[in-house]
Amino acid sequence: MKGVQFSFDDNRNNVTLSIAPDQLEQELSAQAVYDALCEQGFDEVYLSQSAIKATCDKANHFFKTKDKTSVMEQVGERRHCEVEFRISEDNMTGYAILTAPHGGQIPDTAQVLRLAQKANIRRGLGKKRVKALLEQLSEAEPGKRIEGLIAKGLPPRDGRSSRQRPLVPNALDRVLRPQQSNEKKVDMRNLGEIVCVKAHAEVMRREPPTKGRSGFDVRGNTLVSKEGEWQPIKLGNGTAISDHDENLVVSTIAGMPKYMDLIMQVDDTFICPGVNVGTGHVTYEGSVLVNGDVTEKMIIKAKGDVTVNGFAESATIEAGGDIIITEGAMGKQQDVMREYTCQLKAGGSIYIQHGQGVDIVCNGSLNVGRQLAHCRVSSGGGVTIGRPENPQGNIFACEVSSQGPVIAGTVGAISGSTLRIDFSPGFNQLQARKDFFEDLLKQIRTNATRHKEKMDIINNRVVPKSLLAKVSEAKELLRNETTLLSWMESKSVQLLEAKQHYQESARLIATKKLYSGVSVKLNNRNWRSEREYERAKVSYDMHQWKYEPMV
Question: Which intervals of the chain are annotated as region Disordered (predicted)?
Answer without folding.
Answer: 150-170
